[in-house]
UniProtKB/TrEMBL annotation:
SMART domains associated with the record: MADF (SM00595)
Domain MADF: 10-100
Origin species: Parnassius mnemosyne (clouded apollo)
Protein name: MADF domain-containing protein
One Pfam family here: MADF_DNA_bdg
Superkingdom assignment: Eukaryota
Lineage, broadest ranks: Eukaryota, Metazoa, Ecdysozoa, Arthropoda, Hexapoda
Amino acid sequence: MKWAESETLKLVELYGEFPCIWDISHRDYKDKNKRNAAYEYIIRAMSKENFGVSELKQKIKNLRYTYNQERMKIKKSQKSSSGSNEVYVPSLKWYYVMDTLLKSITRSTETQDNFEGTIQSEVRT
């Protein structure tokens, strides 16, 4: 089911309120009870029919995948363009909210599985 962009933005903003579910360096990241409580809060706040923890986790996974694709488009356009007018600019309203959350953690841990649609570290030799 396709979501309205306003719903997706709301989800990303709620997601950002709980670093225990997205920041691997957060002290509560490994606390399953706190993570589950955060998921339940988000589900209640979204108040969507047939939207439970598994659907939320899948939606987050899809959003992170899309975020990483958009980030790669930006990076590729920065490398290949000579002028600033040619740099790719994401049109997704939620992209910049997600970028605020994830830029510090993804840029420091850019060695993730290609199957997840994420990028490989430029720092690795």
